[in-house]
Amino acid sequence: MPQGAPAPRYPAHLLVVLAAVVLLAFSGLLRSIQTTTQLAATSRDPYGVELALRRFAPARTQLPPGARVAYFTDVPLNSDAGVAAFLATQHALAPCLLLHPDLTAPPEFAIGNFSRPQNYQRPGYDVAADLGNGVILYRRVTTP
Amino acid sequence: MIDAWPLLSALALGGAAAEAAIPAPATLAPPLRWLWRTALAVPFALGITSITTFALIWTGAASPLSILAVELALLAATAFALHRRRHPGSEPLPTTTPFSWNWALRIAAALATLLFLFNFQNATAAAPYGEWDASSIWNLRARFLAGGDAWRFAVAPGLNAQLTGASHPGYPLLLSAFIARGWILSSSVSPTLPAATALLTSLATLLFLPAALAWRRAESLGLLALLLLLASEGWLSQTPVQYADVPLALLLLASTALLHTALDSAWSPRLALAAGLLAGFAAWTKNEGLVVLLALLAVTLLRGGSRPFLWTFAGALPGAVATLLLKTFLTQGGASLYPSSTSEALSMLASPARWSEVLRGYLDASLSLGFPLSHPLLLLAILAFVLRPASPERLRSALFASLPALALLAAGFTALLVTTANQQWHVSTAVNRLVIQVWPALLFTALLALRSPEELALTDPKSKSPAPAAPPDPAPPPTRRPRPRPRSG
User: Fold this and answer.
1) How far is A108 from chain B (nearest CA, A)?
2) Closest CA to B156 of A83, A125, A60, A104
3) Which of B113, B114, B119 to mutate to test the interface with A (most CBs of A within 10 A)?
4) How many CB atoms are closer than 10 A to CB B65?
5) pLDDT tens digit sequence for B284-340
6) A86 to chain B: which residues are within 8 Å by CB?
7) How many angstroms separate the Cα of A60 from the Cα of each of A63, A101, A137, B147?
8) Residue B346, by phi and psi: left (phi above 0), alpha (psi -120 to 50) or beta?
9) How far apart are the C-alpha atoms of B203 and B250, rounded to whole Å?
10) What are phi and psi of B306, to 5 degrees?
């Protein structure tokens, strides 16, 4: 603006509408914050990743980095809960690669992720360690 | 603090590269120039460091030392280019007398940004590992990439375990490789790094949008755009989830802004190269980015001719080649979600029910972009009503600049029509993301198509009628400042 020139003026309706837009934008933002706060209060660790990292921490130290690991569970893998549990376990054990037991030749190691106590034996594998919280480490049966 | 220095070193390289490619416009006020530099450092940092890190991982040479050595060499080369540059500024546009209520808009924008930070912190505290796709795709692949010899699992078909929709070993790697770089450099797999990356990309979008609009039109429009973006619950809720959609949206926004500049000016090689580079990085971020790149190239060829096209194409090479190599040589197998024959595709296209499902998905996603009374589309319509459309020339350049974003929406629509996955599931999981990816860029182009509050200043203080619609850019109205001389030397 040139020095000494009067400040520009604007139509009143423009200023009113812009103020309304700003206020409405803030109302939307505040409502989003309210939604986030409610979700945060009711749903911590929604996909069980933190829990899986805690449960599988002992197994991770016993598996060689980058190992292929078969996955045994009592939660069906064709259910939402089964998929979520598989992916949380995969995240916790990476860089080991979890394999669907039906899809591949049995690797050296397997991990069990069980929702309740049961007979943990699985064909072709020995239980190498019961690591608690439904986490079982298996090793393939060695043929003589 | 362990995670801060890998991010800061990436930003240093990204900032230098951005400044070398597209210097902060001389017409911007110093605070906006700072916003511009900070914001553009992020997409350049993401793109450059993710590609160099992945190249080192692939060749088996990745280590903290090798990553730093390569980046230092690039930083030195960039600094040399900056030093030698003779024309540091882009051609500046004429500016209008600033809107005298900009101070109020600045306060509102600053307050809204603080509220955004509070919201981000709140969401991240509840889900520090992000949402579903973060732990099952993006951060999981980063863990493999940072896991030494296990990096190949990031692109292995076994990763999918036949759980369709999970893991996606064929997805491009910008986000995962950037996070893996930080983990390799800090020798720790900390969850704060993906969260900090999500914050960086979100903040960069929030900073770049007002800076780019201030450059192309007026600061007031930029500040209003920031407020509208923060009123967009759909975008806001995606910022802390640690997916690749917000980074892709940032890259699309930045390449759109550069495309618009090129459309309005003389297609400088520097602009075309930088727009291509960012669009190439978009292709390296998600498959959708490939559509953005192709659309950008098409617009460049149609509107600029062969020379700008070649510059844009050259700029796109790093991201495009990285994506092509990944998909050609590394990604094996993977479930296809699309028909294997033309007849199958045609029968899907002929089904009204499938059209209805996708249309409903787009409508739902648009509605869920905001809350009813403060919906950003409603706010945009109100602004359009009071500000009125700009001149036909401006409308045309805004329309052409929006073509990459519109092409992405159209490509997504077609892909969802012919998906072989459960269509309802595919629509419900994909359309929201598409809308988030294009929203900042479309908001930018929509506001470009309007007159700014500056242009509605009353010509005579006693008159109640605003100035007539602004003429096209080359003919500045009387209230405008004389065109500043480009800096030289």
Assistant:
1) 16
2) A104
3) B119
4) 10
5) 999 999 999 999 999 999 999 999 999 999 999 999 999 999 998 888 655 677 888
6) 161, 163
7) 5, 19, 10, 13
8) alpha
9) 10
10) -75, -35
B177 vs B186: CA distance, rounded Å: 14
pLDDT at position B460 is 61
Instruction: Write the single-letter amino acid at B407.
Output: A
Q: What is the DSSP string of B96-154?
A: PPPPTTHHHHHHHHHHHHHHHHHHHHHHHHH-TT-SHHIIIIIHHHHHHHTSGGGGGGG
DSSP string, B243-278: -SHHHHHHHHHHHHHHHHHHHHTT--HHHHHHHHHH
Interface residue B460 vs chain A (CB under 8 A)? no
Taking CA atoms, A6 is separated from A2, A14, B457, B469, in Å, by: 9, 19, 12, 21
List the 96-135 stretch of B: residues with Cβ below 8 A of A.
Answer: 97-101, 104-105, 108, 111-112, 115-116, 118-119, 122-123, 125-129, 131-132, 135
pTM exceeding the 0.90 threshold for the entire prediction: yes
Q: How far apart are CA B159 and CA A55, in angstroms?
A: 21
CA-to-CA distance for B445 and B440, rounded, in angstroms? 9
* Residue B423, number of CB atoms within 10 A of its CB: 19
Show the CA angle centred on residue B299, arms to residues B212 and B259, nearest 5°.
15
User: What's the DSSP call for residue B155?
Assistant: G
Only one residue has tokens 């003026």, namely A9
Q: Residue B53: helix, strand or coil by DSSP? A: helix
Question: What per-residue confidence (pLDDT) applies to B343?
Answer: 87
Whether the CB of A28 is below 8 Å from some CB of chain B: the reply is: yes
- Half-sphere exposure at residue B431, Cβ-oriented, CA atoms within 13 angstroms: 25
- CA-based nearest distance B445→chain A, Å: 18
Q: Is the CB of residue B45 less than 8 Å from the CB of residue B11?
A: yes
**H or E element at residue B280:** helix B269-283
Residue ranges of domains in chain A: 12-44, 49-140
Is B115 in contact with A30 (Cβ distance < 8 A)? yes
Contacts of B381 in chain A (CB under 8 A): none
Question: Between A10, A39, A103, which is nearest B456 by CB?
Answer: A10
Provide the 3-class DSSP secondary structure of residue B450: strand
How high is the pLDDT of residue B166?
59
pLDDT at res. B170 = 83
CA distance B194 to B140: 11
Q: How many CB atoms lie within 10 A of CB B213?
A: 25
Residue B148 touches chain A, beta carbons under 8 Å:
yes
